[in-house]
Amino acid sequence: MSKLIHRACVADHSVDKPDFRESDGSPTWITRGANFVIAITRVRAGTTLSVGDVPDEHMVLLPDTGVSIVCGKQAPRPVAGNHLLIVPPGGVTVTADAEGWIVRCFSARVQALLTLAGNASSYLVPRDDVAPMADWPAPAGGYTLRAYDLAQGVRENDKTRVYRSSNLMINVLCERQEPRDTRTMSPHSHVDFEQGSITLKGTHVHHLRTPWNSDLGTWRPDVDAEVGYPSVTVIPPGLVHTTRNIGPGPALLVDLFCPPRRDFAARPGMVRNADDYPAPEAA
Prior knowledge:
Structural class: mainly beta
CATH topology of the largest domain: Jelly Rolls
Order of helices and strands: EEEEEEEEEEEHEEEEEEEEEH
Strand content: 35-45%
CATH architecture of the largest domain: Sandwich
Distance between the termini: 31 Å
């Protein structure tokens, strides 16, 4: 009998109630996968986001507002908006400069956030279809705060902007100004890892298909999940998927993976910060 293909978890934060409120009341939505957890907060000027004793690296995506960030006992460091931060293990405090969105991406080792996730019940039984977390080599020069200007990651005729840490990989796709051409869709599936698809601007439709097998009783109808922003959709292994933005205006889509993808790492030039993070020899 074919292995069970799980259903996607669709969390549309534009309509869902927040899973947590920060000390100033700012709403935070939390969504988990088997190996990662994503926290998205609508911040105001002065909102403080603090997490203590993070056991490994995590990422902070700043699509609009800038922040001041303190790692451990280091001095505060200002970072402008439209940056990706890779934060070293340990405690961290992020303070927003203005109203906007802050996206934090952690590995599933941050247990406190896993229990707050709106979809926590979907993972009460461990997933045997997802390969376990496996850290890649430590960064060149050791663990430290790294800030990447996303504008500098834009390249002609390339819609991707891929960055990795020792445990996560993120693809901040270039912002679209027009709806996706429906003649250029890219349906595909993954063998043994989940994809966390984050929408930060625009309306998107995730087209999801469960492949048929010999047991007709397991067949499912296709799903066309329309989401606003922000949202997080966790796509399991084996589920065929492709996404398009619809309607006018800008659209921004981000994909998260844990551990990093070996196929992306093997493509010359695809990972923008490859010089900072050596890949395993087998990648």
